[in-house]
């Protein structure tokens, strides 16, 4: 049985997560460190958004329930695919993907999702805000990774951005009904 204290484990995990592992990837280490940190932030937001989508999916009530409920299944699958791509890319660069609930909670820039709402329209408004915030962070990271000389990561994030914008469009179309 280990004699490690929780704080010792947290400190060891933090050090391991920030250390780059050897790779033959020719992007300079200094840039890779910045890209890995940036991608871990996007990973946290995408995992957060994925969990939010499930929160909405489970708790919708009212008119249009079934249509929105089923739409969210596809949204979740698409985001989960991007979560995997982002995590794998940062590992390819020598980093450690930080996907635990504790890491996500600490690293997401998204506002906490309200758990006291149930109406379809209320969920769609809150979900649209989360999609918009995630999309803005991803678009900034497209530019940042390009400036850091990593067009592959920039391209990957462009695909993520397209999915986020497409899903946001569907959500906003539901909200514009009758306006």
Automatic annotation (TrEMBL):
PROSITE patterns: DPS_1, DPS_2. Pfam families: Ferritin (PF00210). InterPro entries: DPS_DNA-bd, DPS_DNA-bd_CS, Ferritin-like, Ferritin-like_SF, Ferritin_DPS_dom. Residues 37-177 form the Ferritin/DPS domain. Belongs to the Dps family. This is DNA starvation/stationary phase protection protein Dps. It comes from Kushneria aurantia. The gene is dps.
